[in-house]
Amino acid sequence: MASNFPHGRHRLRIVLAGGSGSVGSMLAWHFQEQGHHVTVLTRAPYTASWPTVHWDGAHPGPWVETLEGADVCINLSGRSIDCRYTAEHRRQLYDSRIGPTQLLHNVIANLAQPPRVWMNASAATIYRHALDRDMDEATGEIGGNEQIGEGIWRRRAPEKWGFIVHLVREWERVFFATATPRTRKIALRTSLVMSPQPGTVFAVLSRLARVGLGGTQGSGEQYVAWMHERDYARAIRFLIDHEEIEGPVNMASPHPLPNREFMAALRQAWNMPNGLPAPAPLLELSMFLLRKETELILKSRRVVPGKLLEAGFPFEFPAWAHAAEDLARQWRAADRGF
Ligand SMILES: NC(=O)c1ccc[n+]([C@@H]2O[C@H](COP(=O)([O-])OP(=O)(O)OC[C@H]3O[C@@H](n4cnc5c(N)ncnc54)[C@H](OP(=O)(O)O)[C@@H]3O)[C@@H](O)[C@H]2O)c1
Q: Whose CA is nearest to atom 20 of ligand 1?
């Protein structure tokens, strides 16, 4: 059952830990525009139209006060996944997610008036490489040891895919490990959040499309799970209000689609009918040179938002073609060039 948010208060106090990044800034703008009070916890405070408060993601400090009596805590902390999975980067990817989650646990457990809801970032890549059927929260299978390919090409999924699944599982395990009776917990199993801001996945893929390199990537059969940023922010509000929802929640549009169709719709949004394809070996080479991994592109994420749909969340952008058109229109309107 939906409810008005507790305390009968209209103006929410929302704390975004690790909220200086792309998702956090988008949420901060969204909630501030709606008249809510937003605070960002960051290792490097900066000037913004909301307060940014120092924390180190590892120790309690004066920042703890921001959570006392807050309505909502959303923790987005984590080193960017956009890197080569070297031993050192693996340690950073792990520590920057598990550490702040454990810290918030200790802090929230000791507050006189803890937030009523705590959402922690998680990732849609927790599910197995799936071409055959949709993965929702109830029936989706967690990945890590899956076999991929057909016939003589059948083999174990790359070790790096397993590493990321293991990382996300551990992140969620730590998040849910200790009960917080006064704080509802939601793990945001986030797909690619599509935003018309520079430096985002949408910006990178759009640039490829606009220079004629936006063809099918890999076999093109692998599914892309995505969510328009506006629906992401609206879904967060929906989850705040719907007190019956807890546990893992898939943050994805209802219609993931094969990469071939995904890239075609993106090209369409940029009026580029053709694009050079990037077969897997070429992708492996270029990503190696760019010091990135191909997991984000080649693993099939056929992830759907079971809980959001069941609760009646009204998506504004359920279909990628419409979302891509809207994002490209916003990009042009902001005159961002390439
Ligand atoms: N964007 C997506 O499409 C997507 C998809 C799936 C999952 N996710 C997950 O959602 C979260 C937010 O995504 P995003 O795209 O906004 O990420 P982002 O832009 O990389 O921002 C993450 C924030 O984490 C903080 N951080 C980094 N290392 C840290 C550390 N060692 N200790 C404490 N804080 C640290 C940084 O804040 P400061 O430097 O200010 O401290 C940074 O702004 C991430 O955990 C990401 O893995 C995102």
A: 80
- pLDDT tens-digit series, residues 246-303: 999 999 999 999 999 999 999 999 999 999 999 999 999 999 999 999 999 999 999 9
- Please give the domain boundaries of the chain with CATH numbers for all domains: 6-333 (3.40.50.720)
* Angstrom distance (rounded) from CA 137 to CA 184: 17
Query: What is the residue with the minimal CA distance to atom 28 of ligand 1?
Result: 79
Neighbours of 139 (CB within 10 A): 9
Residue written as tokens 């916003």?
330
Nearest residue CA, atom 24 of ligand 1? 77
**Of 113, 144, 93, 119, which is closest to residue 16 (Cα–Cα)?**
119
Question: Residue of the nearest CA to atom 31 in ligand 1?
Answer: 96
Pocket test for ligand 1, best of 22, 39, 82, 83 (most atoms within 8 A of CB): 22
Burial class (CB in 10 A: 0-12, 13-18, 19+), 20: buried
Output the residue whose Cα is nearest ligand 1's atom 12: 76
pLDDT in tens, 5-25: 554 457 999 999 999 999 999
Ligand 1 pocket, residues with Cβ under 6 angstroms: 18, 20-24, 42-44, 57, 76-81, 96, 100, 121, 123, 190, 192-193
336 Cα–ligand 1 center, Å: 24
Pick the closest to residue 279 from 259, 261, 265, 264 (CA basis).
259
Please give the distance, rounded to the nearest whole angstrom, from the Cα atom of residue 95 to the centre of ligand 1: 12
Q: Which atom of ligand 1 is nearest to the CA of 200?
A: 1
